[in-house]
Every structure is written in structure tokens, then in C-alpha cells.
Specification:
Elements: H1 14-22, E1 26-32, E2 35-40, H2 45-54, E3 62-70, E4 78-86, E5 91-99, E6 105-106, H3 115-126, E7 130-131, E8 160-165, E9 170-175, H4 252-261, H5 278-281
Length: 317
């Protein structure tokens, strides 16, 4: 087995089989980047889904996901996409319908009961209505939420904000009040020709228009050479540093003499530091192994023996 899971079946013949099964219900079909996309008539969506599930050469038994897309510039701004999977053929397709804020999409809960929650998510995020869904309520946002967050015209900050009120001892909703406004970040590098004044450049006074350029400094005259003065010898050139691993020009005797000329440094400490003992501090023992502790006469000892009575001499009664 070369792969942990079998590969998906090829798309060959899928669009032809879909056209034969759907007929005039199919509006558009494409095969792009290895994915088959079918656009069907919105009003006949349920009929088209049954044909894709039971049609010969199709057999898409499972509904895996329902997603929404928003295109505000279009008349029917919303796309509702259904991802179908064929267990027997190991193949996936995407079925798409278009709608707007008013026209409802037929529910497919009669074919796949799992579509109940998936349609509620699309309704909550985009506001798409589904006709035939008996429990079309919000599922991701809170009760009383205003608007649909995934729409392109929904404000980034929302309309209300939620916080816990210590005065009311409960969670309250209030109009959005941003502590800090949105900032515009400038990603232009100042080293690549920024079109603005950098911080600190405003301190430099600009040159007035038409002002003459500063005159160049005249060259200094050459100094006269005095005949009686002896010229100084040229400085010795500085030797270049030796490379790592290069042999030293000194001999062994020169190195030994240089080491002998160094005077030993005497330590400034008169008495070396040692650990403090009982003789220095007068407290306790140096260690538990230093010897037995002193016996306190006021404390009775467990091993203490009673003194023996003196033996009576013979003849004494």
C-alpha cells in the first residue's frame, strides 16, 4: 500500500453523467484545479440533489458541508455551496446555487437530516433563508445579535459589545466604544525613500530658496622646509598581524627570558580564608561527626543507670 488512504477517483466522465442526470436543472458546470463544480437551478435544488444521490455513475450519498459566500456587487449576492461525497466511488463534487437576502433556498433536510444545523450556520453568518427548515434559528451568535457577521458590509467593530457589569451583577450589552481607534500602519521603509518627514527631521532648518551654496575651504599653503633642522626619521611601518597558526619569529631562549622577567605577584591576603569552626564562633559543633553532644544534667537520660549500693562487708549486720 503506497498511501495511507486511497486516492480520489478521477473526474473523467463526471460532468457528462451529471448532465445526463440533471438535464435542464444544470445551469453551469466546470472542472477547475481538479474540482468539479455544478451550478443548478435554485428552485429545483431538492430534485437535483436526489438525482445526484441516486443517479447512475454518480451516487453521492453524503452531504459533508454547506458554506456561504458573499459577493455584494452581484444582484444575487450569495452563493450557497453544498459539498457532496460518494462513498462507493470515493469522489467529491461541489453543488452551487445563488440567492439574495429575500429569496429563500429550498431546504435539503428531507434528504440529509444533518443539513439542519449546516443551514442554520449559513443563516446565522449570511442571513440566507431556507424554506422548509423547521428550526431556522441562530446557532453561532448570541440571542438578540444584530446583523450577520460574514457579510462583506458588516462593520469590523460590530454594533454592540458584551461585558460583565459589577453594578448590575450580570452580563450587559452596550454600544461599541473603542478604547483606541483603528490605526493606519505605514510599512514603507525609511531607507527606501519614504515620502514623509521622519521624527527629528523637523528640527533641521531648511535652506532658504535661492541661497548661495557655502564656499569651498581653500587649501592650506605648503610649509617651508628649514635647512638647519634635521628631518625626523620616517615612522616604522606597523607589522601586519600574524595569521592563526603562523610560526612565531622569537626563539625559545627569548621566550624563556621574557617569562623569567615577569615578577611573581604576591597575594594581598595575610591569612587564607578557612571555614569557621566552634573555636571561632563559639556556637554549636563544626559537624554532626565532630563528637558527642554535651550531656545536660537537668535532662533525664534513657540510658542512665541507677548507682549501685555499696556491698556490706562480712560480719556486718
Amino acid at each position: 500500500m503506497k498511501a495511507p488512504a486511497p486516492r480520489y477517483a478521477a473526474n473523467d466522465g463526471v460532468i457528462a453523467a451529471a448532465r445526463a442526470a440533471l438535464g435542464d436543472m444544470l445551469v453551469e458546470s466546470t472542472d477547475l484545479v481538479g474540482e468539479v463544480n455544478l451550478t443548478v437551478d435554485r428552485t429545483r435544488l431538492v430534485e437535483a440533489m436526489i438525482a445526484l444521490r441516486d443517479g447512475a455513475g454518480l451516487n453521492y450519498q453524503a452531504l459533508m458541508e454547506i458554506a456561504g459566500v458573499d459577493y455584494p456587487a452581484r444582484t444575487e449576492r450569495f452563493d450557497v455551496c453544498y459539498m457532496l461525497l460518494s462513498y462507493t466511488r470515493n469522489h467529491r463534487i461541489r453543488v452551487r446555487v445563488t440567492t439574495d437576502e429575500v429569496q429563500p433556498v429550498p431546504s435539503v433536510t428531507g434528504i440529509w437530516p444533518v443539513a439542519g444545523w449546516l443551514e442554520r450556520e449559513v443563516y446565522d453568518m449570511y442571513g440566507v433563508l431556507f424554506e422548509g427548515n423547521s428550526d431556522l434559528r441562530r446557532i453561532l451568535t448570541d440571542y438578540g445579535f444584530r446583523g450577520h457577521p460574514q457579510r462583506k458590509d458588516f462593520p469590523l467593530s460590530g454594533f454592540v459589545e458584551l461585558r460583565y457589569s459589577e453594578a448590575d451583577k450580570r452580563v450587559v450589552y452596550e454600544p461599541v466604544s473603542l478604547a483606541q481607534d483603528f490605526r493606519n500602519f505605514d510599512f514603507m521603509s525609511p531607507w527606501e525613500g519614504a515620502q514623509y518627514v521622519l521624527p527629528g527631521d523637523e528640527k533641521a532648518a531648511p535652506a532658504p530658496a535661492g541661497a548661495p551654496a557655502p564656499a569651498a575651504k581653500p587649501p592650506e599653503p605648503a610649509k617651508a622646509v628649514v635647512a638647519d633642522k634635521v628631518p625626523e626619521p620616517p615612522a616604522r611601518p606597523v607589522a601586519a598581524p600574524q595569521a592563526k597558526g603562523a610560526p612565531t619569529p622569537l626563539t625559545a631562549d627569548q621566550i624563556a627570558k621574557a617569562d623569567d622577567s615577569l615578577k611573581p605577584v604576591k597575594p594581598r591576603v595575610r591569612k587564607p580564608k578557612t571555614s569557621d569552626g566552634p573555636a571561632d564562633t563559639g556556637i554549636g559543633k563544626a559537624s554532626p561527626e565532630a563528637g558527642p553532644e554535651a550531656i545536660d544534667p537537668d535532662v533525664p537520660q534513657a540510658d542512665a543507670r541507677k548507682p549501685r549500693k555499696p556491698r556490706a562487708k562480712k560480719g556486718e549486720a
